[in-house]
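Example 3.2
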Amino acid sequence: MASATIAPRKIDKTMLLAPAPGSEDKEMLRQAAMLTRDLHTPNPVMYWGDCFGSAAIGYAALLGAIASGNAWLTAALVLVSILTLYRAALFIHEITHLDHRKLPGFRLAWNIGIGAPLMLPSFLYEGIHAVHHSRAHYGTERDPEYLPLAHMRPWTLPLFTIGAVAMPALMFLRFGILGPLSWVIPPLRRVIVERFSALEVNAAYHRPAPEGDFARRWKVQEAAASVVAVTILATTALGILSLRAFALYCGVVAGVALLNQTRTLVAHLWENDGEQLSLTDQYRDSTNVPAAFPGVLWAPVGLRFHALHHLLPRLPYHSLPEAHRRLSAALPETSAYPQANYGSLGTLLKRLGMASLRRH
């Protein structure tokens, strides 16, 4: 948990001038490391309670929606299910950064309780996200999580977002049909691993085959997600699971994907066009939205501090608000730090849209 024992060192504004593009804001990087040394330990109560409490509410709301005969109540319960399962699902991001020795069993429990039921096993993100954080790869054609959206035509932005509603169909295809077939068809398996086994936005990215312990985890997680997908498809086809229940499940999964894609749309400015960036410029190309509400709904689990996360990727999500407070107090306005802070989701959507329109 956040500690108040370290007081941030206030810097005279004359000590720091705004760094030029391509250069590092060394004082910001130094302060970020120094002021957060006591914030790196994950709090087990926060992780387990927040993640699985959110999941329990989400599943209960989904079951309530399936059982409800009232349209308004059904809609309300579906909304609750989307918001809470979205929060629980986003712990996949924490899993990619966690030192799992400090939180034993969390990844396994998450995959059993959330990853498999939502057809979102953690192998889809583990390893992939590390490439995105690489100084050499961020924002380049080798980054699986980056597209220069600010340089692309304006119509690509709504298409990028709305395409997320196809997520349930894609996951059923991946884990219910093509995945199991690929286990007995080696050429198909290579295609599935390279092209259909990553949560990516860059279609040019080809994923390498997994190795070692990760390959073993991948097999188990994929098998679990496939069991869920095949079971849902089979029971629906046989009439055991009602079409209404199937549609509501798909609606919740699509809603989770749509929320996440909207958040992704404003997680960066997407202004890099393939050049290798300094860490400071990676920070500037990312965003913080410090306002707690409604940010905790559309960017939960610390992701409203996405730029700060790129500075300190190993910092647990619950430590990010305190880290932001300390750095905001310590660094002057001439630092690069305030340059990544924005007021709202709407502000960022408008900024991205205008950037795309100006270039076309």
